Amino acid sequence: MLRSLLPIVEHAVKGPVWDCQMCGQCVLHETGMTCPMTCPKTLRNGPCGGVAVDGACEVKPEMQCVWVKANHRAENLPLLPQSWRDEIGHLRAPVNNSLAGDSSWMNLVSGADRKTPSGWKGSE
Amino acid sequence: MGAFDELVASRERPIVTAEFPSMDGGDLDTVAEAVDRFQPYVDAVNITDNPAAHAHASNVSMAIAVKQLGLEPIMQVVCRDKNRLAIQADVVGAQMHGVTSFCALTGDDVTAGDEPEARRVFDIDGPQLVSIMRTLSDGTYLSGRSLKHHRELLIGAVENPFAPPAHVRVRRARMKVDSGARFLQLQIGYEPEKLEAFVEGCGDNGVCRDAAVLPTVILTKSAGALRFMESSVPGIHVPGDVIDRIASAADPLEESYQLAREQAAHALSLPGIAGIHITDFRHDDSVHRLVHDLRLGPAFSTEGATTHASTTRASTTHTQTA
Ligand code: SF4
Fold first, then answer.
1. Which has the least CB within 10 A, B43, B76, B126, B250?
2. From start to end of A1-71, where are the E strands?
3. Which domain holds residue A1?
């Protein structure tokens, strides 16, 4: 019951504010409360090299690059803990596509959102 | 370890890499002709992976051909066209044929190419790809499953010092080096002050020490080529005064060469820079002329070593005082 209801509640809360794409492994706190899945290339470690000089997105020039915005907000949003501000510079693992559509809250509690393939070494 | 790998490690003289032309059919003779053009002047060539989102003969097939013809290929891999399974299969397959140098890129979007209707993949991104290549180099797939045989790979990445936000580019370069990149090829740019700031940042955070940083110099023919890059190539900005300089020159062809030569000399003068990457759109003898004028690359290895020793010393001082 909770498993089927939670994604609906989560999307209702996060959709309007952050344009949440329900990847099931939320990293908003690491990315200046900016959803990286709204980047047209769905980059978890942007920005790509295609950002225009004025900060516009390569793919959708009518919008500001999601990662330009994310970095600006990670540095400037009030009330963010310092650890959240710093985390934007850490390498995030490839998206676990099997979690798409799940509630990330559920996966946070279970730890499923932090589980990476055993060959993943990150940037150590 | 091959000669290119050793040079990246020792940096005993400036490194010269160049963009290998992409091909649309033909046979191995066509590849051999291009190999002959580059071989005496460069240490390795980039084998592109559907550049600017246009389909061409595959990176794997071209890298194998170039390797067999005796020139060192750097096989580029972009994240746009394939998922993590296919990408790992390509790297492992190419490695079986002796290809050991790779360069990880996020890749231009499909909208930059001639098939914008294609599905974009981006299952992984550039920095993650660097890390996955290191996993393969260490002997397992991303899943953790072992490779039966593996060799150490020389992994590289790219960064764009000219795209915003400037300080994030320096940090991203560090992220790629921490993930396993040992060389870093830079995007084309016409704003020397941005390159200087980036290289200074990479001196401060140790990127220039831990990886061979190679700015790109592009050989063009005319103001039209610069205008095209400004309007149509993602991530490249060509300021108006640079375009005007070529457009108003008495001999635009020669002026274009001089522009590239100045860019190369400027890049090589920056403390911590390991060499240059050349993209040639002139298709004449300009690559030869450029390495000759600057006395760079395998053809000038003895003199290069002397010039570069002073650069390396300058870079050490720079790192210490930073
Ligand atoms: S410019 Fe920014 S938002 Fe657009 S594809 Fe690149 S990283 Fe994503």
1. B250
2. none
3. 1-25+97-115
